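Good morning,

Both structures are done.
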Amino acid sequence: MSVSVEKKIEELRNQIIKHDYNYYVLAEPIISDENYDKLIKELEKLETENPQLVTPDSPTQRVGKDLTKEFNPVKHKIPMLSLSNTYDEQDLFDFDRRVKEALSEKEKVEYVVELKIDGASVSINYINGKFKTAATRGDGTTGEEITTNVKTIRSIPLKIDLSKVKKYKLNDFEVRGEVFMRIEDFENLNKERESKEEKLFANPRNSTAGTLKLQDPKIVASRKLNVFLYSLISVDEEFNSQQENLKLLKDLGFMVNDKYQICKSIDEVLKVCNKFEEIRDTLDYEIDGAVIKVNSIHQQKILGSIAKSPRWAVAYKFKSKQAFTKLNDITWQVGRTGAITPVAELEPVKLAGSTISRATLHNFDEIQRKDIRVGDTVVIEKGGDVIPKVVSVVLSERAKKSQATNPPEKCPVCNSKIFKPENEVAFYCENPECSAQIKGRLIHFAARGAMDIEGLGDALIDLFVDKGFINHISDIYKLKNKRADLIKIERLGEKSIDNLLNAIEKSKSQPFSKVLFAIGIRYIGAGAAQKITDHFNSIDDIIVADEEEITSVYEIGPSISKSIKQFFSDKKNVKLIEELKKSGLNFISEKKEIKQTKLTGKTFVLTGTLSSFSREDAGARVIDLGGKVTSSVSTNTDYVVAGEKAGSKLSKAESLGVKVIDETAFLKLLEENE
């Protein structure tokens, strides 16, 4: 092999990379498609003749030949949080107030307003300037690896020229953004599917999310996915602002949406949001709102985050699009808690990119308040552009003989008695063995984000419950004993059942936090489950804990603690836990290696604003040193750390004689023990 061949290959790669950037990122091609194809073919020929020179970052390696059998879990170095939503001006003013209350009065706040792209979130890791891995958001802590599929997106560079950013060392960094499909490409995809008599996608977001999870990268490549990047993250470097973040991404060759604006006040933010809403229908991609972020990264760190979302950013959702249609019927759905929810069965109508035939009516009080009746012409909209709901009735078109809607007298599924608790709007089926409740609990348990049992979806759960193979969560782990019966079920067979049983076995490795979330205790979401399992060593410790101890867990309130105690006061639920333990599920917290220091076993309460870091970061440092962080002050509290604007917790600490320290003393205490 001559040096000239190696040099020629490198020259061709650089030319193709440059043309990809011009075409897919800048939308300014400088050569014809025909000449571009010639460069690709020439490179392919040279690499075929010299296979030892093929590298993963070569343009010829974008579309892999191997099928992706499974999407492995990827733990995010920094959580991928979802945003809290706001829907009106007052919500934005409240967000601004909370930001300013949490910061020092000397701090000036600046906001960046970006378009909220309606797509699928992705995180991409680069090592030494080369594309390494890509992952979905997942539950925010752990996503799924989709490297092979993301590599097919031609606006994403496989190799970065790090010399373009000399200010920072970027040997190991992540970029995060939103993968989307342009409206024209989405419509072409649906036309193609229609011609093949395949099921159509409801909207570009659904088609994007579905495409990213396909096993064949060739099909992914054919669907013309695109991406806007909005975040640059490095464990080794600290950036100054979100504005700088966006500029750095652009300098590195990433596709950045340039419609963002910097605002000095929340009034300016609101004007920009309204402007974005006006241009919404002129764009060639879907947006469903604006994202408002505190510009300063330093201020972002002080503000920190709650379980699911950052305190320094919020999504402003645009007004929902509406449509008129006929309400053909009202049916009643039973959920996993027994709550009976009314559903509107509608004359199908097109709304915001999808066909709507059903919509939520929330509860019977809502039906009465809006006087919704079967046969009415109703106005529907997508709440936050996601869940369709009935907004109002067109009374002028109501039939004279229409009758008011009555609540159900018995459970629509099992015909059992129903009851309505005081101070609640929902009716409940009182039979815990109701098949709808059983199915709901099983669907929740097996879902992604919970036990993540691939293949055990709604349809299969319906089938297994109806045939009597499953009646309780614990029965899932006994299915292996019924393999011979399962493989006889029509349209299933040996291979699919073995895949399912393997997925069930694999789910036993899920961490304690996922298991706690999966068993379906009321009010326990994924974030709360993580906080509770970080505090308690095992399920046994949670079962014996009193409400006060559970409430002392940082950001866990009385409604959650009461729900936990009610759940475990039922002997059937305690028996369920014992059965799941025998099946091999994990009910013990992951043991972190904790230093033995003078803070080991000490309990801290953090209150007010800390200028050096967020309360979450401060709490993490305490825990690393063996201490505990709780949310309420008691005689068992060892230290109350009082930042700026400390409130009632400081007063209570002083009244109980608990030691109070300021931020300077707190930092000194940490440093002495690290």
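Second structure follows.
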Amino acid sequence: MRANRYLPILLLGLLALGIIFFITRLPAQAQGQNLLTNPSFEGQYSGYVPETPAEQADCSLGICSTAQTASGWKPWWVKERPTDVNPEFKPAQRNVGGSRVRTGDRAAQYFSFWSTHKAGLRQTVTVPANSVVQFTIWGHTWMSESDTSLTSDGGTPNMRIGIDPTGGSNAYSQQIVWSEYKQAFDSYQPFSVQAQAQGDKVTVFTFAAPSTNPNSPDYGFKHTDIYWDDAALVVVGAGAAPPPPPADSGGGATTNPNPPPVAAAPATQFGGNPTATPDAEGIIYAEVRSGDSIWAVAARAGITLDEILEMNDMSRDAFVHTGDLLVVGYGDPPGEEIAEEEVSPEATESEANLDETGDEKIQATSTPEVADSLQASTEGEDDMVGVAICLTAYDDVNQSGVFDSGEELRPDVAFTIFDGQQVVSNYVTDGSSEPFCLEGLVAGSYQITRSILANEALTTPGDRAVSLTEGSSLELEFGSFLDEETLALTSEEGQVAEGADSGVQTSDGMDEDALTAVVVGAVVLAFLLLVAVIAVIIVGRRKTA
């Protein structure tokens, strides 16, 4: 009788243990849990040990004493414009005037005097494999000529945040998913972005690239300060498999593990007077080739990345695929009457540029104004004073960010040179005749962008803004390497479920780990129930005996 009294309690205990074991075996998704180390930027700040050659050059003593960052965080910076410097990093204190700290006693701060910077903070975090994560943080800027005013005088801070789903440390990686830019002056505003991890690590980035003082374009504001506080990285969904990595900052992707290079063909000048034939609606399309990035399509069309994105109502994180048609210009629709075709001087000149094999001798195109300058320079007018920009793309084998001896030129890189108003030239490298020098330009500011393939990682900035005076010249070297890890990811089978979106992936069902946990839990429960049944039988036999 006593055994019968305790039998229900024994059975309930065994069932409870089984349920607990089953629950604990389910994969932890850490939803709602902040995965960042020191997300509020409190505590002790310490100097940064430089990791890249450029950082080591700026910190020749082996430690960056002016880059004081909170535990768990690292700084990054690049110097592209003549006004750019490596900013000073230090904690913002609550007892200092202004809303410099949102919560707690400290916030992250970096700043520059009478100059500009392109810089931020980063942290690499371990996350559940292939999970969808969300990075949020509060930030603001103070750009002022006054030492005491708490109100900014103007300018553009260009603040945003990003997630590298591969866990890399390069702030110029094309893998990074960026938020929209926000101009957050004088008081904290929230920033947020989501991405799916491609493995079990991601890196979060803050980013700011403040403009120069519009009243003194050769200088920054006296005070250009950036503040960040109260960060969080949380899991918002489980992922079945990592998505294909983006091909460029425009988000292009390919599932081909070894895409052929972009054809080294001359860029076609469309611009405001398209030369390609419009369709019945007056739209000019360009087809995406295998291995193309949106930049490469824009470069061949003679337009900027922003222009092609606007024409196609796309964002920088959009995806393109081989065979897609992108709008690259507009023109008059073909009429019913076809006028007699005339041979233009440009066509004659184009034929003259063909060599014996029929290939183009010159791989660059430019606007008529620049073409006139280039022609004048080739006619021996040595007294002409102008600006020259020389471009080189190279295979940065040691990933140093420097074009070292023995490293080879990289072919099939499409460059676009933009003067702020229009594309002045395009060029596609052949890997043998570079550097390519565009001479006879007028003095002023230019933006140079380059294309990038799906499995290519940049070691130098791919988008550079320069300002040149009359008679000056500038040599720009663009380094990159083939990312074997990314290449391996693109070759894995079943990366994206059939019919799934190309963007951030979430799983409505259970992934493989969850299914395994369910099976294990079921087996354990069955075993415990079997033990309970055996116990009942034994107790019954003893009672009978």
